[in-house]
Design a protein that fits this description.
By secondary structure, this protein is of the alpha+beta class. A 6-stranded antiparallel beta sheet has the order 3-5-6-7-8-4, sandwiched between helices. Strands 1-2-9 form a 3-stranded antiparallel beta sheet, with no helix packed on it. The longest helix is centred in the last third of the chain and has 16 residues. 46% of the residues are buried. The C terminus is likely disordered.
Length: 345
């Protein structure tokens, strides 16, 4: 490792990244872990090599054996990685492999929920998992939940596809009624909170409203900012939940990605508020309540790029409806096209 130490002493980040690729290709995980340690030590001597150390943590989480992957999972780790390291590790390792090596409750909880998103049933391990704020979420996917859109991590890139329903063609826009808002702070706040990262850490915006009437009235209250016209498309409750989870998992254009586990939590939180249920919910009651609501995607006339969450929800029994209008985008750069799904390279 003397040659690598020379690169550390020279603070040669470009050559160090080539060394990382070489060690990973050779499956020299101990060498990678040692190099990360050397890069962190170098920071104390004024050599800013923490990005290299953080990239090594990402590579270990993604492609190393489970004991090495779990070894980099700790609160605050991977702050500037392509995604939360708990999600990165869970994307490539099963629960049984990671669980014996997980050291803290927060990482254990996040990894468990990430594995649930990938179809694992972890109910038998409930006593092993201190789930914190996600303790109301079942350790399996419910029959009424969708197949969630999951990220695709690679060595130096990651893609975060939108749910298929987000790409479905909407009908032509038309004029909509503009109804007055009513007080429903809990549901409106839950819809806004779903994309809180887009607003607090990026350049996004969000508006949400509750009205007396149907979904068209709710959308009309928000569509005034778009010329008073919009298109609505009826969707299934599971499809709406997939959109909420995708938005809650996303960091938007510039924010830090919270991850799939957090996205599922936010989707359930919004769904419970819309259904008028208390936390924690009975999963079967929630599924039934969501089936009784009517769900819509909506869009104004002009096509837009970037990160978009536009949903409308209608309660035909109580005569109430809600709508949310959330967007975020990257500033256009020469040769750059804003992708409809997150892509980092």
């Amino acid at each position: 490792m003397r040659d690598v130490q020379a690169l550390v002493d020279a603070a040669d980040s470009a050559e160090l990244l080539i060394a990382v690729d070489r060690l990973a290709a050779a499956r020299d995980w101990e060498g990678l872990r040692d190099l990360a340690h050397r890069c962190r030590e170098a920071v104390e001597f004024g050599r800013q090599l923490w990005p290299v150390a953080m990239h090594i943590d990402y590579r270990l989480a993604w492609e190393a054996p489970a004991d090495y992957a779990a070894g980099v999972l700790r609160p605050g780790a991977g702050r500037f990685a392509l995604g939360p390291l708990t999600e990165v590790a869970a994307s490539n390792h099963e629960w049984a492999a990671l669980a014996p090596h997980l050291g803290d409750a927060a990482s254990t909880s996040a990894v468990a929920q990430e594995r649930v998103l990938r179809g694992e049933d972890l109910r038998a391990h409930a006593r092993q998992i201190d789930r914190g704020e996600t303790d109301a979420l079942p350790l399996r996917l419910m029959d009424w939940e969708p197949v969630y859109a999951l990220p695709r991590y690679r060595d130096r890139s990651a893609a975060f596809p939108q749910p298929d329903v987000a790409l479905r063609t909407l009908p032509p826009p038309g004029p909509l009624p503009d109804g007055g808002a009513v007080d429903d702070d809990e549901a409106v706040r839950a819809l806004r909170d779903t994309v809180e990262t887009w607003v607090s850490q990026s350049a996004g915006s969000v508006a949400a409203v509750a009205v007396e009437g149907d979904a068209a009235v709710a959308v009309g209250a928000l569509a005034q900012a778009h010329g008073g016209q919009a298109a609505l498309l009826g969707i299934q409750p599971a499809e709406a939940l997939a959109l909420l989870q995708w938005a809650g998992a996303s960091g938007g254009a510039y924010g830090r990605r919270p991850g799939g586990a957090r996205g599922r939590f936010m989707a359930w939180w919004a769904a419970i508020a819309l259904a008028g249920l208390s936390w924690p919910p009975d999963p079967d009651d929630l599924g039934q309540a969501l089936a009784e609501l009517r769900w819509y995607r909506w869009a104004p006339g002009a096509a837009e790029k970037g990160w978009i969450l536009r949903l409308a929800i209608e309660d035909p029994i109580d005569g109430l409806a809600w709508a949310v209008d959330a967007t975020d985008h990257r500033e256009e750069e020469p040769g750059h096209v804003d992708e409809p799904a997150e892509l980092h390279q």
